[in-house]
Design a protein that fits this description.
By secondary structure, the chain is α+β, with helices and mostly antiparallel strands. The chain is globular, with a radius of gyration of 13 Å. The protein is built from five helices and three strands. Helix 2 packs across helix 5.
């Protein structure tokens, strides 16, 4: 797993909210949050193609919400929950709660 010092900072609130406003990215974050651990990229999307998913992953990484993790040659995504909580207290829990409620 990458060194914590290598992570870019979590972006300011407007940039984070901008990253989360897209339904595909919000669903990716919801799935990562519910998993509580790194997840294979392909398990995080169904409605878009691979190149579109890569674009969404890039936006989430640039906002400081996720990081790429390589496990046995496969790319996984990990939610930077602790970093998000430190930068924007309570935001991730509120977003995940709302996203999970909207799925019911």
């Amino acid at each position: 797993m990458p060194d914590a010092d290598a992570h870019p900072p979590v972006a300011p609130l407007p940039a984070v909210l901008g990253a989360l406003q897209d339904p595909v990215r919000l669903e990716m974050i919801r799935r990562l949050g519910n998993a509580g651990t790194a997840v294979r990229c392909t398990a995080l999307y169904e409605t878009v193609g691979k190149s579109t998913a890569a674009h969404h992953f890039k936006i989430l990484r640039e906002a400081g919400l996720t990081e790429r993790v390589t496990v046995e040659g496969n790319t996984w995504q990990r939610l930077r929950a602790d970093d998000i909580e430190a930068a924007l207290p309570g935001l991730l829990d509120a977003v995940l709660d709302a996203a999970n409620r909207s799925r019911k």
